[in-house]
Fold this protein.
Amino acid sequence: MVEPVERQPDAAASSNAYANVAESAALAMRGDQLVKRFGAVTALDGVSFTLGKGEILGILGDNGAGKSTLVKILTGFHQQTSGTLYVNGQEMLLRSVDHARALGIECVYQDLALANSLSIYHNMFLNREIVRRGPFRLLDHARMRELAAQCLDDIGVHVPSVDLPVERLSGGQRQAIAVARAVHSDAKILLLDEPLAAMGAREAALIIDLVLRLKEKGGLSIIMIMHNYAQTLDIADRIMLMQRGRVTFEQHSAQTSVPELMDIVRREYRAMRSNGAH
Ligand SMILES: Nc1ncnc2c1ncn2[C@@H]1O[C@H](COP(=O)(O)OP(=O)(O)OP(=O)(O)O)[C@@H](O)[C@H]1O
Ligand SMILES: [Mg+2]
């Protein structure tokens, strides 16, 4: 059984709940003391985390806490200033998004990148279009339509037609397409940056349902950045709280609660104010 770990912000060698089995095959990913600086700004100030295989890790935290920066390092978009990342137990410096993708790491970004004027199926095969055999390398639209429809069906996303331009979909449906695209690419590790941002209850339910079904299918480890505590506790196996570039708390969802999380955040604010920090 893993003991709860509440971290002191200045615990230099702070590790994580799985430290003893750090190189264990049970981990899809592990970060050790990741630091990221943008000039004078320290976005990540020694972040350590683990992601178990088949696990959903929910990351909570204030605006500017460093959540997106962490995800962008895990997806190869940024490189850490220092610290070590392990993928499937192997030390790995992710050189680019393509490098991360080749390792089965896919991301749905906060400012998500769908081409709104293109159809659903075009979007699902953006940058990995299927071409017909033969000298002209013509796009195989029929095959892409068929596979897109099948993939959406597999994961329970219902759209009237895969020929619809994405701009005709609701925000929730668009997110679902972005998630479907990431999953379709055979992702082993899926990173979702605020998939429920600006969504109504029904749309959020669609994405939550989709993520839970993906988990049931197995073989996928997921990191979700979230804002809503209750939703996070519902969907994630484990939660991690980030504040000012550090991990200040982590716990199994079943062993914490919204009041406990609120309390930790309040305590942090009080400590910050009395230290005169900004
Ligand atoms: N490319 C960049 N260049 C300079 N500073 C950056 C860059 N990206 C992020 N930062 C800074 O790093 C800090 C962390 O930003 P980040 O986007 O990771 O926060 P976040 O936790 O995702 O916040 P939010 O909840 O608002 O999305 C912020 O102070 C931000 O201004
Ligand atoms: Mg962010």
Notes: Residues 67-68, 110, 193 surround magnesium ion (ligand 2) (CB under 6 Å). Residues 201-217 form the longest helix (17 residues).
